[in-house]
Amino acid sequence: MDIFQSTTEPGILTLTLSGRLDADTTAKFGEVLGGAIDGGHHKIVLDLSGVDYVSSVGLRALILAAKRLSPLGGRIVLCGPQERIRHLLEIAGFTSIFTIVATRDEALEQLR
Amino acid sequence: MSSICTILGNERAEIVRLGEIAERFGADERLTDDEVMGINLVLDEVVTNIIDYGYDDADRHEIRVTMTCEGNVLTIEVDDDARAFDPLAAPPPDLDLPLEERPIGGLGIHIVRSVMNDVEYQRRDGHNILTMRKTIGRT
Question: pTM here?
């Protein structure tokens, strides 16, 4: 799991993930995401286009972060999931609690 | 019919090895990429749960995983000597709940039930035996 952070627009943090989001890698992801929220980033784009595997441990980290952000007026927008990852997000019922879009530009537009 | 049986130790590193075994089995059985990913995900969910939460001691335990293809049915059996745990006893998660009320856990077995067509649990001779079946379309 590699995580690349960028702030191409003021007030919006983009985390670009690649690899696997599973029991072994989610702790690192959770630390980065939690650290970003602690650091005042409340509008976050998660670019999942390079992620080829997600287990329920990774899904839990996403829900936890979203629950933290909600009372702060923030939120996470997911973008670019591969078809099989998108299918998993649908199985997990994430389409009703996360905005999921195809491209990073669309994600940024959601948060402006 | 073709079948593969592997015995894993109760440590996280075994999940990677199990994934490699599932990939090889999927290639031999001409399963689709989506089917192989589904198998990987199901095995990850079930075995990670056993390793992380199943044991009351720090001893080494064996987890036996058997994958069988017969006709167009794939059967996965996971046999462990962890404490009795019926994953099917939990009610399915309510996926209509808003974020604030959405529980953190319970997604793993929900994913297993969604990927596989049929899941059965038995407690036999001090072992948990989870048998999961899925209809496959061979390439």
Answer: 0.90
Q: State which residue of chain B sits closest to A52, comparing Cα positions.
A: B37
Residue B130's region, left for phi above 0, alpha for psi from -120 to 50, else beta, is: beta
- For the question of an ipTM over 0.90, the answer is no
CATH number of the domain encompassing residue B55: 3.30.565.10
Taking chain A (112 residues) in consecutive chunks of 10 residues, what is each chunk's mean pLDDT?
90 96 91 95 97 93 95 96 95 95 96 93
Which residues sit opposite A3 in a β-bridge? A17
Q: Residue B8's pLDDT is what?
A: 97
Spatial contact of A66 and A35, defined as CB atoms under 8 Å apart: no
Closest CA to B81 of B128, B43, B38, B123: B128
Classify residue B99 by its DSSP letter.
G
How close does chain A come to B99, measured CA to CA in Å?
6
Q: Output b/e per residue, B78-117; b: 16+ Cβ within 10 A.
A: bbbbbeebebeeeeebebeeeeeebeeebbbbbbbbbbbe
Please check whether residue A21 touches B, CB under 8 A. no
The total number of structural domains that make up chain B: 1
Instruction: Please give the CATH number for the structural domain made up of A2-111.
Output: 3.30.750.24
Owner of token pair 């939120």: A75
Domain ranges across chain A: 2-111
CA distances from B137 to A42, B33, B69 (A): 44, 11, 11
